Amino acid sequence: MSGPASPQLDLEQETIGAIDRAELLLVRLPFVAPFGTSVQTWATKDALLLRLEGSGVIAWGECVADPDPFYSPETNETVRSVVKDFLLPMVEAGHSLGEVLRSFRRVRGNAMARATVENALLDLIAKRHGVPLHVALGFPCRRVMSGISIGIQESQEALLDAVADAVANRYHRVKMKIMHGKDVEWVAVVRERFPDLPLMVDANGDYALADAAHLRRLDAFGLTMIEQPLGYHDIYQHSLLQPQLVTPLCLDESIHDRDDAVAAIELGACRVINIKQGRVGGLLEAVAMARECAERSVPVWSGGMDETGIGRAVNIHLQTAPGFTLPGDTSETRRYFHEDIVEPPVTLDADGFIAVPASPGIGVAVVEERVARLELARERLW
Ligand code: OSB
Ligand code: MG
């Protein structure tokens, strides 16, 4: 939404207001095709959703955790427990958002749990003001770049087909997952067929520093970056690997907050950062992290966690913030789900861009009848 300049909200000062009902729901959406990484293959998206209802507004927060701790130590079950027993009890109607988020700092780690609640509160506040999230955050609308994350494939032919499809749909860049045994040769065949494609790889921590010579072979392919080659919470060893490579490193799993991002940059552990709002504790930390990175001339992009339309919309609003200068992992809904729980689905325009939803809050409508059909569990907390 562009139009006349909207009065910028002072989000910190916004009071939470009455919440009449709070529920946690677990929904299961089958993926169009299983999504494989070096750490796990997921056949369904099991999303934990926080639904808040207050003063005639319904707000949603989507947790980006998985049922398992294979990408992140947090799981849907740990998030459920932390939201229910610690975070939601800190949300008081008379408090400001700033006060609530300050009390959340007492909860160590558990960033995905904090993000679930924070994002739902931001949706609530934005909807109460009748403005889309990006306006509530203070950012003008801009079209968002698209990017696709192609999972580990059974064969090089299947990989080439998937890349060809992404190119035909005008995605701005392609990321392919790699792992031991499916790396250098697999990148080589893609690069040979698509010499000019902006291409990157993501290893999800499958390598060790001892693999440096092997990883150096990737320098031949002009990749835009190599994402998280080493351990899932390492920064130091990445700082030893980066000088051995021409290709920029990008950190994902290792970065939990602004301090991690600054440490990684200052130590030379990476030259790009993947910001997943869920992994870093919510939209506001993600925006602040992007600003810190921009001040250090480090480009960032918005990662994805195969979110339903709720989290996908949040990621799109996030990319209106300064610093998001690279295409992220935001791709069309139809690549993940035959039927999503929101309308409308994310689509690409003729130039491969994504429009920012213009309706209040997350800006997409949750179809509650579909949620009810797909739900595995529902628990009323308030
Ligand atoms: O490492 O970025 C990752 C999905 C699940 C867990 C980890 C990752 C991913 C993706 C998919 O790469 C991003 C997306 O398409 O949403
Ligand atoms: Mg990643």
Word description of this protein:
This protein is an alpha/beta fold. It has twelve helices and 15 strands. It has helices at 76-87, 97-104, 111-129, 133-137, 156-168, 184-193, 212-216, 236-241, 258-266, 283-295, 309-318, 368-374, and strands spanning 21-36, 41-54, 57-62, 144-145, 148-150, 174-177, 199-202, 226-227, 249-251, 272-275, 300-302, 342-343, 353-354, 365-366, 375-380. Strands 5-6-7-8-9-10-11 form a seven-stranded parallel beta sheet. Strand 8, helix 8 (236-241) and strand 9 (249-251) form a beta-alpha-beta unit. Helix 9 (258-266) packs parallel to helix 10. The two termini are 34 Å apart. The relative contact order is 0.16. Mean pLDDT is 96; it is low at 1-6. Bound molecules: 2-succinylbenzoate and magnesium ion. The site of magnesium ion (MG) has 7 residues, from loops.
Q: What's the arrangement of secondary structure elements?
A:
Blueprint: E1 21-36, E2 41-54, E3 57-62, H1 76-87, H2 97-104, H3 111-129, H4 133-137, E4 144-145, E5 148-150, H5 156-168, E6 174-177, H6 184-193, E7 199-202, H7 212-216, E8 226-227, H8 236-241, E9 249-251, H9 258-266, E10 272-275, H10 283-295, E11 300-302, H11 309-318, E12 342-343, E13 353-354, E14 365-366, H12 368-374, E15 375-380
This protein binds 2-succinylbenzoate and magnesium ion.
